Prior knowledge:
Mean pLDDT: 97
Oligomer: single chain
Shape: globular
Number of strands: 17
CATH superfamily of the largest domain: 2,3-Dihydroxybiphenyl 1,2-Dioxygenase, domain 1
Bound molecules: fe (ii) ion
Low-confidence stretches: none
Order of helices and strands: EHEEEEHEEEEHEEEEHEEEHE
CATH architecture of the largest domain: Roll
Number of helices: 5
Amino acid sequence: MKLRSIEFALPDPAAAAAFMIDVWGMAPAGMVGGTHYLRGSGTFPYLVALAPAADEFVRSTTFVCDDAELAGLRTRIAHAGWPCRDVISNDLGGGQGLIVELPEGEILRFLAGTAEVAPIEGRDLPVKLTHVVFNSIDAEASGHAVEQVLGFRVSDRTKGMVFVRCNDSHHSTAFARAGIASLNHVAFEMADLDAVMRGIGRMRDHRHAPAWGPGRHGPGANVYAYYIAPFGPVIEFSTAVEKVPADYRTGEPDDWTWPPNRIDQWGISDKDFAGLRAAEERFKFKREWDAQAPAG
Ligand SMILES: [Fe+2]
């Protein structure tokens, strides 16, 4: 199972796409029916979809998997009674599978049979998404729910987050202990540390300063720089998060404490807590489809 893409709806997708291409550094992957698709250098046909809508929300976060994983998901989701339906993707790469609403409203889509594309050159392109993080009212319950129903695994718990993996990457998603349900941020995996730092430089050329970073996180050990995108959401340049073994010991908040005046490994950057929080509250989730009756 791999995290592939996030699908946004918003009033001005053209402006958002222009920023993500011209400033953030993605490549256009095509436009279908008003939806702008943006890709990185890797083999996924797109990482971000931007569709026109009257209001702004996250339509889905998409994972790709195989038929056996899909069958397991189908059974467990039906047993849990989560709103769900079969879906054939009209997005680039096609595929078919399930779309499901988690208990706090997050919409996840699981697709099998998706097409991939040839990688493209571009040392400043993101390679792929490395994680999509959600704000949660009850992050602990969300972590347990995705373990039981989706087969994900909690990698670490900190004072602020429950980090969750769906393969050997330390986390592909996480639930922030935020008191609200919304999109926390989307992290783009850059080729290496220099690509993250050049991204910061590119943003600076356009008068964008990081809302947090650069720094190096504790859990996942990735180098990060967070920004508030002009169209709303919090986006992150990141190096790859570390790989963990299947028997990785789940860390607890007491395993992840910082000395005074530190919230990351380096301690070189300030964090705009208020600005980030406001941005994190903008994109919520909206189910645009009717659930099917549970299969059994
Ligand atoms: Fe992140």
